[in-house]
């Protein structure tokens, strides 16, 4: 409706900070509601794209860790994630979602582990004193960027869900960084000191 009022194509219209911009023309969004609310209803009909097109989100993680050569303690020094999730509708919440997922990945890789009593199977670390989640000092400066992408096959908004995108691969990037740093390959998470220390080279 806004593009129609401004006499431009939808793809040429930019909405940002309460201003509509197209073809070097600017208009404040409240101007379009002078005659009442601006309301449009639409429907999406199921199509064939589910079988014809791949519409997944994608991401890549980069992690730098330091491994103490004496104790085997691991610290994440830097971590970055790049993601493609179609059109990002809310950059702040999308970034926050990915930061949260990357933090979960640090916990998965280094600290979080459920422990059971082998005699009767009951959970023995069912509180935050014994189940170790990453705290502020465990999480370094995390950076996130989104690849500019609009997927016309996904839906009319050209957006795709983010959901678990920020955690898929986050833990693996840290485990790979540990291997790159000291040559120890951990396959049973989390990579605690007792699993890293026996594989460290003698100094």
What does this protein look like?
The strands form two sheets. Strands 1-2-3 form a three-stranded antiparallel sheet. 22% of the residues are buried. With 203 residues, the protein is of the alpha+beta class. The protein is built from five helices and six strands, in the order αβββαββαβαα. Helices cover 23% and strands 18% of the residues. It has two domains: 2-41, no CATH class; 57-199, Aldehyde oxidase/xanthine dehydrogenase, molybdopterin binding domain (Aldehyde Oxidoreductase, domain 4, 2-Layer Sandwich), CATH 3.30.365. It has helices at 2-6, 49-52, 91-110, 170-182, 193-196; strands spanning 14-16, 19-22, 25-28, 58-67, 74-84, 142-146. Helix 3 (91-110) crosses helix 4. The chain starts with a helix and ends in a 7-residue tail after the last helix.
What is the element layout, followed by pairings?
Elements: H1 2-6, E1 14-16, E2 19-22, E3 25-28, H2 49-52, E4 58-67, E5 74-84, H3 91-110, E6 142-146, H4 170-182, H5 193-196
Parallel strand pairs: 5-6
Antiparallel strand pairs: 1-2, 2-3, 4-5
Helix pairs in contact: 3-4
């Amino acid at each position: 409706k806004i593009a129609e009022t401004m006499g431009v194509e939808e793809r040429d219209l930019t909405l940002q900070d309460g201003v509509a911009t197209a073809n070097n023309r600017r208009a404040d969004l409240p101007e379009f509601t002078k005659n009442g609310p601006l309301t449009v209803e639409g429907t999406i009909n199921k199509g064939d794209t589910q079988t014809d097109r791949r519409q997944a989100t994608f991401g890549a993680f980069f992690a730098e860790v330091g491994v103490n050569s004496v104790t085997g303690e691991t610290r994440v020094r830097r971590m970055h994630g790049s993601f493609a999730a179609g059109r990002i509708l809310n950059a702040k919440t999308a970034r926050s979602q990915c930061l949260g997922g990357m933090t979960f990945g640090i916990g998965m890789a280094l600290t979080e582990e459920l422990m059971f009593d082998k005699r009767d199977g009951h959970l023995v670390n069912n509180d935050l004193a014994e189940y170790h989640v990453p705290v502020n000092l465990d999480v370094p400066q995390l950076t996130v960027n989104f690849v500019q992408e609009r997927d016309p096959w996904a839906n009319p908004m050209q957006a795709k869900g983010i959901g678990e995108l920020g955690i898929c691969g986050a833990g693996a990037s840290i485990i790979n960084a540990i291997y790159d740093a000291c040559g120890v390959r951990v396959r049973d998470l989390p990579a605690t000191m007792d699993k890293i220390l026996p594989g460290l080279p003698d100094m």
